Amino acid sequence: GALEQERGVALHAGLAALVASLPAPRVVWVMLPSGEITEQALQTLAKLLAKGDVLVDGGNANYKDSRRRAGWLGERGLGFVDAGVSGGVWGLENGYALMLGGATDAIAKIEPFAKLLAPAPDRGWIHCGPAGSGHYVKMIHNGIEYAMMQAYAEGLSMMKAKSEFDLDLAAITEMWRHGSVVRSWLLDLTADFLKNGQALESISPVVADSGEGRWSAIEAIELGVPAPVMSLALMARFASQGQDDYASKLLAMMRAGFGGHAVQPKNPE
Questions:
Q1: Which of 16, 76, 114, 183 is 20 to 30 Å apart from 226, CA to CA?
Q2: Which domains does the chain have, with CATH numbers?
Q3: C-beta separation of 138 from 213 below 8 A
């Protein structure tokens, strides 16, 4: 097919055909949404693979699931590596940051792939520790990402609100990219996006959370480690997702009750 010709990707009719096509010891990399779909794929592959083969989960799984999966796969003689993958859609050209968890022998079998996928063979990938540690480090990585994004968003919102200065956010973020202590890839993306318009009329102010931010906040609570910035960044996303924000309505009612403050009626459709 076209995909095979353009990308050199071999297509197979199913998982059984895929496994049969691979030389032993096999390495099978699974990259699916976290949860049941990943669990089912690993269960199916475990029945097809042989002792000494290695399964890699490159999705954003909960690290506790990864530790559990390493256990039952190990009982079958299969290696397991949890791979936290960062780089987004740009990784195809620039390489991916890989955070790997698993036993040393399993890591050794997938090391050639890590060196190919990373930005360079000698950097951009790391064996973090035992099973679960790769996805744990990726979880914290994403919690930090939430916080960084929120900080940029708040700062830019303040500058936009200061109308008397008529600040050019595209020019400012572009300048920050060169020599500033707040430069980052997230800033690069923001500056590039703002070049196309700063009003953002076509963007709905709803921000999804994909799981890792929640898990980071829960982990902070379980560890007793203060993580207010990451946690508040998650809460800001929750606030953006409210259709009719019941809490805000209650606050308005309370203000009206104790201080006689006016309640703004909802505009009719």
A1: 183
A2: 2-131 (3.40.50.720), 139-243 (1.10.1040.10)
A3: no
Give the CA distances from residue 20 to residues 26, 47, 90, 160, in Å, rounded to whole numbers and listed in that order: 10, 12, 32, 58
H runs (alpha helix) in 100-224: 104-117, 133-161, 169-176, 185-194, 212-223
pLDDT digits (tens, 9 = 90+) for 227-247: 999 999 999 999 998 856 788
Q: Catalytic residues, which ones?
A: 138, 145
8-state DSSP, 41: H
Asked if pLDDT for residue 3 goes beyond 80, the answer is no
Please give the average per-residue pLDDT across 139-143, as a whole number: 97
| Cβ–Cβ < 8 Å for 66, 131 | yes
Distances, alpha carbon 127 to alpha carbons 74, 123, 256, in Å: 18, 11, 57
List, as own/partner pairs, every contact residues 219-224 make where C-beta atoms lie below 8 angstroms and the sequence separation is at least 24, other chains included.
Answer: 219/139, 219/140
Model confidence at 52, pLDDT cuts 50, 70, 90, reads very high
Rounded mean pLDDT of the chain?
93
Which residue type sits at 87? G
CA dihedral 26, 93, 182, 229 (to 10 degrees): -40
Distance of CA 105 to the CA centre of its chain: 27
Residue with tokens 């055909």: 17
